[in-house]
Design brief:
Distance between the termini: 58 Å
Helix content: over 70%
Strand content: under 5%
Radius of gyration: 18 Å
Largest sheet: none
Length: 40
C-alpha cells in the first residue's frame, strides 16, 4: 500500500508542475486573441 501511496503522490506532483507550466502558455495564447478582437 505504501508504494501505491507514493505513486499517487508523485503523479500529483507531476500533474501540478505540468499545469503550472501550461497556465502561462494558455494566458499568452488567449491575450493576443482578445487584443486582436479589440483592434477590429
Amino acid at each position: 500500500m505504501r508504494w501505491l501511496f507514493l505513486l499517487l503522490l508523485v503523479l500529483n506532483v507531476f500533474y501540478y508542475i505540468w499545469h503550472q507550466q501550461e497556465a502561462p502558455l494558455r494566458a499568452k495564447d488567449v491575450t493576443p486573441l482578445s487584443l486582436y478582437r479589440g483592434a477590429q
